[in-house]
Design a protein that fits this description.
Hypothetical protein af1432, 382 residues, alpha/beta, Rossmann fold, 2 domains
């Protein structure tokens, strides 16, 4: 692809000076595309239309002078990196100092010497070319980082969903429960007007709320009748087990770290992973109750993590409207009535109110996941 000509703008309120400048650069007409302006405002108008490589401007002009032009170019992200050469008189040191302080790239004395002008222009064009090359390199790096970050986030999300789905296969082979809880939790958080980062985080971490069920025997997990006191006590352990699974460092990770050090690979555990910490809090607290009658710690009110309170409602609501080994699905109306009755007892009243405000979205989610398998949109939802 052919390179475009370098675009230069010359600014002076004296047409005769512009004529002299035009004759000086005439031999470069094939390589340089020159624009000649009688005012700083006219130069700004040109800069708004095309990408410039160099601006040459007289310092002293009526109305808007060369310093106004400098400030205006500096104020715009698009034009602040254009090299500007200011024309000044030999006896104007204060103007030269002011020009440099405002960001002028170079100074050129009047009367103008052709060799000086061409030398300053070549230098300014090399500077602009280097700046453009660096900016393009930075854009390319940022694009690669965005793409890799997106790929990593997609990979992490897919791992979370698959891990949660693997757990659900024991009592919900479609895995729809974890998907619905995630979407319900995000809808409630949105209805509460919570920070978008929190809302996205609870969507990503809530599918792991019941990961501790991997330690519950099938005879208890799939029991169609009422659990005995001992069975119920064992069932309650899934909260602590889930938090342990998410929080404690796996033994296999230690083996991998040993291998990585032996092969000179960096592999240090991440001690401050906010998503992992939120997932741990949800796993541990999603069966606590607002009135303190829940488990495993008997927390009450605001002492229960907010994400745990939100997932608690989403989890119970989905259990109410779904078939379970111990009960048939309740109607939407009955399920909503139970949620309302438990406001201030099982559930945070503010979260119940947000749930009611989002009921149309909740019903849409319920309908969306009514099929026998998880829609493909789950992994890309966000």
């Amino acid at each position: 692809m052919a390179l475009r000509p370098k675009r230069l703008v010359f600014v002076d309120d004296d047409p005769n000076i512009l004529d002299v400048l035009e004759r000086m650069i005439a031999p470069y007409a094939g390589d340089w595309e020159a624009h000649f302006c009688l005012s700083a405002a006219e130069a700004i108008a040109v800069a708004a239309q095309i990408d410039l490589d160099v601006v040459v401007s007289d310092a002293r002009m009526p109305d808007k002078d060369g310093f106004w032009l400098l400030r205006t170019l500096q104020d715009s992200e698009r034009t602040r990196n254009i090299p500007v050469i200011i024309l000044t008189g030999d006896c104007e040191p204060s103007l030269k100092r002011q020009a440099l302080e405002l960001g002028a790239t170079d100074l050129l004395n009047k009367p103008i010497c052709r060799e000086d002008l061409l030398g300053r222009l070549r230098s300014a064009l090399r500077l602009k070319a280097s700046q453009d090359e660096l900016a393009e390199h930075i854009r390319s790096l940022e694009k690669n980082i965005r793409e890799r970050t997106q790929a990593l986030e997609t990979s992490h999300r897919e791992i979370v969903w698959r891990l949660a789905k693997a757990c659900e296969y024991r009592d919900d082979q479609t895995g729809q429960h974890v998907a619905r809880v995630a979407f319900y939790s995000r809808a409630i958080a949105t209805g509460m007007g919570l920070d978008p980062d929190f809302t996205e985080s609870i969507f990503l971490t809530s599918p792991l709320h019941d990961i501790g069920k991997i330690a519950i025997p099938d005879r208890i997990l799939l029991k169609p009748g009422t659990l005995s006191p001992d069975e119920w006590k064992l069932m309650q352990c899934h909260c602590v087990t889930g938090a342990s699974v998410l929080l404690e460092q796996p033994k296999a990770l230690g083996v991998f770290q040993w291998w990585a050090r032996d092969h000179h690979h960096a592999c240090e555990p991440e001690d401050d992973n906010p998503l992992l910490k939120m997932a741990t809090r949800i796993a541990l607290s999603h069966h606590e109750k607002w009135n303190g009658a829940g488990y495993p710690k008997g927390l009450a009110g605001d002492s229960i993590p907010l994400e745990g309170r939100i997932v608690a409602l989403a989890d119970v609501f989905d259990a109410l409207i779904s078939d379970r080994p111990y009960k048939p699905a309740f109607s939407l109306e009955k399920s909503r009535a139970i949620i309302d009755e438990e406001s201030g007892r099982h559930f945070d009243p503010e979260i119940c109110a947000a749930f009611d405000r989002q009921i149309e979205e909740v019903e849409s989610i319920r309908a969306r996941f009514a099929e026998e398998r998880i829609p493909a949109c789950v992994e890309g939802a966000g």
